[in-house]
């Protein structure tokens, strides 16, 4: 299922299937199925673009969810309006990285994706010894949110912030369901790890987002089938293990933003409510796990949002953009290129006499810059008319 695009240039980048974007194949260690790759995607550079926002010194790396791949060009455009450089990573055995000899989405441990993430970050200068001089924001959707949460928790200092779009932090039947299913699932994974489980995806979420049905987005059914892929016991067991680690607390030490729909709709039969709710996750159970992520976590519940909140209706997306932008400005300041110069003259006297405050034009000491606002324990955001 490898995409057919043009030849790569000297740096390894070649035109992507999305107009105006390009991709770079990242070779990984082969596994028992054969060769393995991940794929990094970015907007093709346009030298001298006068409409580009000032560079904020931030790199954003986005990771998709289950039965998914990067196609959200509007998400890239949003981050670029913030002055960030946006990159998306198609993990092994998904989308651009899926090969004919592979079982789609198959891994036996979520830590397997560490290699994919490290390969992408190395290209961007964010390896174990960073060389880019830029801040790193990681953004994950659904399963990608779970994967990045686990990755960040084991690598303090590697990223500056984490944005989670409906992260799959808890199973739909919550912890009781996991505990009941886990023993049998683990046994099945040991005996037949790639056997197929019963498919519970009836295609309702695809109906709500795909332009071929009731949605608004162009989605390639070869990379994102209408009724998904049939999950394997080894993969689902790996998901359960990751969710159990979240339940015990991850201790993430960087700012985290979690975006969730205000409501869920059970995907048992089609309902018009699936156009304005999360029909994939049980958002109440996910919201309960959010405090376990770390010490500086902001939870925003968005009325009318779909599972991928960035694919919601335009008015709802405006809320999403506003909440992310406000959070980024509070918690992800641009890196300073050089140390602040020492003050001279009156400013130097003022600092010696009164400290870090600054004199105002009226001669009264102005306060030092305010600290960033405290993270919200959780709030609901509603689109405006």
| CATH-defined topology | Rossmann fold
- Number of structural units classed as domains: 1
**In sequence order, what are the helices and strands, one letter per element?**
EEEEHEHEHEHHHEHEHHEEE
Main sheet summary? 10 strands, mixed
- Given the C-alpha coordinates, what overall shape results? globular
| CATH architectural category | 3-Layer(aba) Sandwich
Q: Provide the structure class.
A: alpha/beta
Return residue spans where pLDDT drops below 50 for at least 5 consecutive residues.
358-376
**What is the CATH class name?**
Alpha Beta
Q: Could you give me the name of the CATH homologous superfamily?
A: Alpha/Beta hydrolase fold, catalytic domain
Strand order in the sheet with the most strands:
1-2-3-5-4-6-7-8-9-12
Rg of Cα set: 22 Å
What's the tally of helices? 9
Summarize the SSE layout with pairings.
Blueprint lengths: L12 E3 L5 E11 L2 E10 L14 E6 L9 H9 L2 E7 L22 H11 L11 E7 L1 H11 L7 E5 L8 H18 L12 H6 L23 H15 L8 E6 L21 H7 L7 E6 L11 H18 L13 H10 L3 E2 L5 E2 L12 E3 L4
Helix pairs in contact: 3-6, 4-6
């Amino acid at each position: 299922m490898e995409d057919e695009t043009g030849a790569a240039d000297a740096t390894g980048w070649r035109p992507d299937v999305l107009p105006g974007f390009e991709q770079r194949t990242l070779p990984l260690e082969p596994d028992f199925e054969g060769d393995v790759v991940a794929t990094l995607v970015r907007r093709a550079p346009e030298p001298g673009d006068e409409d580009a926002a000032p560079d904020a010194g931030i790199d954003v790396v986005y990771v998709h969810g289950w039965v998914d791949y990067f196609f959200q060009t509007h998400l890239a455009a949003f981050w670029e309006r913030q002055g960030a450089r946006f990159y998306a990573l198609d993990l092994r055995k998904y989308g651009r990285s899926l090969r004919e000899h592979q079982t789609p989405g198959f891994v036996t441990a979520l830590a397997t994706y560490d290699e994919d993430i490290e390969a992408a970050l190395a290209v961007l200068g964010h390896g174990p010894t960073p060389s880019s001089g830029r801040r790193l924001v990681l953004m994950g959707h659904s399963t990608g949110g779970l994967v990045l949460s686990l990755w960040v928790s084991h690598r303090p200092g590697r990223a500056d912030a984490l944005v989670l779009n409906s992260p799959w932090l808890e199973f739909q039947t919550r912890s009781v369901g996991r505990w009941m299913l886990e023993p049998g699932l683990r046994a099945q994974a040991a005996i037949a790890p790639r056997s197929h489980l019963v498919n519970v995806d009836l295609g309702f979420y695809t109906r709500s987002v795909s332009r071929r049905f009731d949605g608004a987005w162009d989605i390639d059914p070869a990379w994102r089938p209408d009724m998904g892929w049939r999950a394997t016991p080894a993969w689902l067991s790996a998901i359960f293990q990751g969710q159990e680690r979240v339940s015990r607390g991850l201790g993430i030490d960087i700012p985290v933003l979690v975006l969730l729909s205000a409501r869920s709709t059970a995907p048992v039969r089609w309902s018009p409510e699936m156009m304005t709710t999360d029909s994939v996750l049980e958002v109440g159970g996910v919201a309960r796990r959010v405090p376990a992520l770390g010490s500086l976590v902001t939870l925003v519940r968005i009325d009318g949002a779909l599972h991928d909140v960035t694919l919601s209706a335009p008015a709802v997306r405006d809320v999403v953009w506003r909440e992310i932008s406000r959070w980024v400005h509070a918690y992800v300041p641009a890196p300073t290129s050089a140390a602040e110069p020492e003050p001279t003259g009156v400013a130097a006297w003022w600092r010696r006499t009164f400290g870090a405050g600054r004199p105002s034009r009226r001669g009264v000491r102005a306060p030092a810059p305010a600290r960033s606002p405290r993270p919200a324990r959780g709030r609901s955001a509603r689109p405006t008319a």
